[in-house]
Write a structure and sequence with these properties.
The protein is of the alpha/beta class. It has a single domain, classed as TIM Barrel. It is built from seven helices and eight strands. Strands 1-2-3-4-5-6-7-8 form an eight-stranded parallel β-barrel, surrounded by six helices. α6 links the parallel β6 and β7. The radius of gyration is 15 Å and the shape is globular. The two termini are 17 Å apart. GO terms for molecular function: RNA binding. Pfam families: G3P_antiterm. One of its GO terms (biological process) is glycerol metabolic process. Regulates expression of the glpD operon. In the presence of glycerol 3-phosphate (G3P) causes antitermination of transcription of glpD at the inverted repeat of the leader region to enhance its transcription. Binds and stabilizes glpD leader mRNA. Keywords: Glycerol metabolism, RNA-binding, Transcription, Transcription regulation.
């Protein structure tokens, strides 16, 4: 996963108008947080044609259930670089289809850290996305314990918060705030 991220800022695309903004930015990776079974292939193709590596958030695609058939559809018809999901069983299925995988974890307390580490130990994603991204202590613990690339996202609004996340062990920061997509990192 380390070798596909050139810019340490990832465009987290939550609206259709952000697709072109992501293409025009310095981000070379995008997390697609929108779409349905009809629009998704077009969105992914448009981004890939501009040399943006695309990860589809499986939990947010309208019209797909989270099962083997959905992953097969994504692989055969959409062809992203990889997927994002909160679900360990979807990570396991996606890995069988040679997709890169990012497991999104919501860290709300110490128990969530323990459970999250157990989940990633079981599912073996290629990277972890921690939410919210303003948790330096959790970033450090996951980076140390999991030995996986850490991507953080959520509640990051300033360059300083990006730098703190990177300094505490994150490989990259995903954000919907396109004002920071050209942060030069």
């Amino acid at each position: 996963m380390d070798d596909i991220i050139d810019s340490q800022v990832i465009a987290a695309i939550s609206s259709e108008n952000q697709i072109q903004e992501a293409i025009d930015s310095s981000c070379n990776v995008a997390f697609l947080l929108l779409g349905n079974i009809l629009s998704l292939p077009h969105y992914v193709t448009k981004l890939k044609e501009s040399n943006v590596r695309v990860f589809v958030h499986m939990d947010l695609v309208e019209g797909l259930s989270n099962d083997r058939s959905a992953i097969k559809f994504i692989v055969e018809k959409v062809k992203p670089t990889g997927i994002i999901t909160t679900k360990s069983y979807i990570i396991k299925i996606a890995k069988k289809y040679n997709l890169l995988t990012v497991q999104r974890l919501f860290i709300i307390d110490r128990n969530a850290i323990t459970k999250g580490l157990q989940m990633v130990s079981d599912s073996k994603p290629d990277a972890i996305e921690l939410m919210p991204g303003v948790l330096p202590k959790a970033i450090d613990q996951f980076a140390t314990a999991s030995h996986l690339p850490i991507i953080v996202g959520g509640l990051i609004d300033t360059k300083q918060e990006i730098h703190v996340a990177l300094e505490t062990g994150a490989l990259a920061v995903s954000m919907t705030s396109n004002d920071l997509w050209n942060a030069g990192l």
